[in-house]
Amino acid sequence: MSSQSNLCQHHRVALFWLTTGIGAVLFVTFQLFFYVNDFVRAQGATPAITFEPDVLWVFPAYYGCWIITMLLALAGTRKTQWVVLVLGSLMVALNTLGGIADGLRDGWYVGFSAVFFITLPGLFAIVTTWRHLNNKGANNVDE
């Protein structure tokens, strides 16, 4: 496999992880719309979700891991591809489980959104990364 083809392949891997990260952002956005809609429909009767200021840093740090996954995928070395596979798979699993748990609490459409926007593209990203790592040409990637 030529180095140009290998370069295109790791860009493809990064694109799949970018799609999964965008899906996670779309899921969170829709989840907020669902919550606000239910809150307005109940005329404020549902309990408001509030967070302490010292806990709010967790959300950007957690979703920032998607950016780290994408940047590491762009690096394209064999070591970073393994980190991408492990970190990305963990992010897909945690986001899916969180979305399904929210779906059990808030309605089936929230769980469906998690599976559609996170799990589906995440599975494609995981498979693409795994194939790239098992490809004989990936051994020639610059370390």
General description of the model:
The protein is 79% helix and 0% strand. Helix 1 (3-41) packs antiparallel against helix 2 (58-75), helix 1 packs parallel to helix 3 and helix 1 packs antiparallel against helix 4. The chain contains four helices and no strands. It has helices spanning 3-41, 58-75, 78-106, 108-134. The protein is mainly α and 143 residues long. The longest helix has 39 residues, at 3-41.
Strand content: under 5%
Tell me the structural class.
mainly alpha
Q: Based on DSSP secondary structure assignment, what is the total number of beta strands?
A: 0
Overall morphology: elongated
Average the pLDDT over all residues and give the rounded result: 85
- The percent range for helix content is over 70%
Radius of gyration: 18 Å
Task: Report how far the terminal alpha carbons are from each other.
Answer: 17 Å
Biggest sheet overview = none
Instruction: Count helical runs.
Output: 4
Residue windows where pLDDT falls under 50 for at least 5 positions: none
Series of H and E elements = HHHH
